[in-house]
Amino acid sequence: MQTIHEQFIQTAELLEGKPLFQRPGKPDISFAQMRDIVERMAGALTEMGVTPGDRVAVQVEKSPEAIALYLAVLQVGGIFLPLNTAYTGPEIDYFVGDASPRIFVCDPAVAADHAHRASDALRVETLGPDADGTLMDAARSATPREDRVECGPSDRAAILYTSGTTGRSKGAVLTHGNLTSNTEALLECWRFTADDRLIHALPIFHTHGLFVAANMALTAGATMVFLTKFDPEQAIDLMDRATVLMGVPTFYTRLLKSDRLTRETTANMRLFVSGSAPLLAEDHRAFEERTGMKILERYGMTETCMIASNPYEGDRIPGAVGMALPGIAIRVTDRETGAPLPDGQIGLIEVKGPNVFEGYWNMPEKTASEFREDGFFITGDLGLIGDDGYLRISGRDKDLVISGGYNVYPKEVEEALDALPGVLESAVIGLPHPDLGEGVTAVVVPKGDASLDPEALRAALSDKLARFKQPKRVILADALPRNVMGKVQKAELRRNHATLYAGVDA
Ligand code: MCA
Ligand code: AMP
Q1: How far is the CA of 216 from the centre of ligand 1 (A)?
Q2: Which of 75, 134, 215, 426 lies at 20 to 30 Å from 158 by C-alpha?
């Protein structure tokens, strides 16, 4: 097995002067230039004392240098730990405390906010979007490191935090084998090659933007049109010279709002991929009507990388996520007994294969509870396999809201709300949202005769939770609906408020 870093080096040797990154208004970065940055970064990390197994936590703006840092961490045998730029101080405190990284890298603009984290055990470095910051300075003066720490398939490559049902985030530990095997499977399934030009407008701190999009381009030798943010008009402008777009469903909802999305403007594109949340079947059909092309929907999870995909050749079915990727097994089991179910019946989706993570960082019991004895991982998604062999996701067994492709675990938001003065209790739900798929919504019960202001409650969360986790709306209620067991009936709340965001523009 070759690690993603090794595959990148091999590709860079072959392609040298070819652009790896193209950015509007900025100079291209070739494969050879990228290799130089990676090797200098690896030199800097080594000089800073990073040794195999050390975590390097990174909360920085999207840039080619941030990708170089990822590759350099893999090169020195470290464990890359990317963090959403929206996370607030208290959220970062938890991740740093839990993962005990050797280095925390942040944006130079917020260095002062994180200076207090520095200790004998933890260095604080900076990396800015314009190749600036202390880490870049160190890389420029470092001796480039050309050798690499040998890593096998079961060696750890990354930790990605995913929120938990208990409110405590869990660090999913991914191995080199997970990343390499999944990238290889996707390259084959989506016929992705060095001839591709990928519009990369996703964030690079999650699986979709980093382990799907970037890993594929780095390995195949494709060029990435690297954008810091998704803007549908800009994406359409770029399509005449690009071949592939990978996005969350919100990308497609927003593209469909533009009159400029036509057969002509998309004529050079060969593939549109959607994932991270359900793509509306109506968007799938509307997209085909407008462009003549069917969006390819796939299904994945932080813990498992990509699991299933609609076929490249063959029917891409709206509302279905396709078949298991090569080497991966999917089964559907009974929610109560865990027994495998025949095709056509809805149950828990379970998965096994080289894509499935090692476990949660420092959480052996939690890890054990999410695996079956025969090694299948319980995704928490509900679905069925149809007569046609396609997997369809019908819902979630886990209490999770997906807003614009970002996961929000209600428990975390409820705990933050319940801690506010005057709040007796709360229930956080996802309601259909025309732009984000689901809108995070809180139903709050005041304590006694406390008078609560929904906007003030939202404002009170602003420095505690990342913006995408904050409720878009807060609804006040006298009580929460409960069943005889005392469990809050979220389905009833979702039904009662189903049209809250109807007509909301964005
Ligand atoms: C931004 N905001 C959001 C979201 N994004 N609120 C809720 N949900 C969101 N996803 C906030 C902003 O802070 C801002 O708040 C307001 O909403 C409007 O922002 P806007 O300009 O519309 O946002 P944007 O910058 O255009 O971002 C929307 C987006 C973005 C393009 C959908 O969220 C995005 O790139 N999402 C992709 C997430 C992703 O990569 N997921 C993959 C996870 P205010 O105005 O109040 O300040 S990996 C995964 O799930 C698995 C493995 C898989 O299968 O891929
Ligand atoms: P994350 O924890 O961010 O990795 O999100 C993974 C979750 O996103 C999965 O467990 C699913 O619930 C959801 N997801 C990803 N892709 C799809 C898809 N194509 N359709 C429906 N849900 C999806």
Answers
A1: 22
A2: 134
Give 10-residue mean pLDDT values along the chain (506 residues). 98 97 97 98 98 98 98 98 96 96 98 97 97 98 97 98 79 98 98 98 98 98 98 98 98 98 98 97 97 98 98 96 98 95 97 98 95 96 97 92 95 95 97 97 96 96 95 97 90 96 83
Is residue 273 helix, strand or coil?
A: strand
Work out which ligand 1 atom sits closest to the CA atom of 298. Answer: 54
Q: In the structure encoding, which two tokens stand for residue 429, read together? A: 């739900």
Which residues does ligand 2 sit against, CB inside 6 Å?
A: 162, 207, 275-278, 297, 299-302, 321, 379, 381, 393, 396, 402, 407
Q: Please, is 13 exposed, middle or buried when counting C-beta atoms within 10 Å of its C-beta (0-12, 13-18, 19+)?
A: exposed
Helices (H), 193-280: 207, 215-220, 232-238, 249-256
- Residue closest via CA to ligand 1's atom 6 equals 468
Strand partners, 234: none
What backbone phi and psi angles, to 5 degrees, belong to 140? -60, -35
